[in-house]
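Researcher: Structure prediction, please.
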Amino acid sequence: MSKQHWTLSLWQRIQEPRIVSIVQSMIYALCFIGGMVTITDPPRSIAGTLGYGATLAWGGFAVLGGAMGMYAAPTGKWLVEKPAIIACITAIAMYAGIVITLQVTEPGNRIPQLTFVLIGLLHFVARYARIKPYSYEPGK
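Model: Predicted structure follows.
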């Protein structure tokens, strides 16, 4: 099989609209990377304040959700993507709780950080609402 044929075959397996599937896969990849970095080198300002257990927990949820989502989003396997979304939402919600806690317990303004965290959270809520009725992409 030629390289061109292999890449075309791979491209055609990505669910339509492909740009949405690719962007969603990249979001899961970022969630995975963020979780891995959190686990391997926890942020001292957060881990020191709230403990390494909480930090490792939200990092673990991000890794799990990111890994599952990177597999499920481009293939249209929404039965797998739904728990991935829930894991990502859990990680982001835990992180949002940490940011809120730091906002009220330490000096400094963390509201801009919180707004972007909540944008990510709302993205996953919208994604879940879109795929909730299905186990797989219709037509696959």
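Model: The mean pLDDT is 90.
Researcher: Thanks, that helps.
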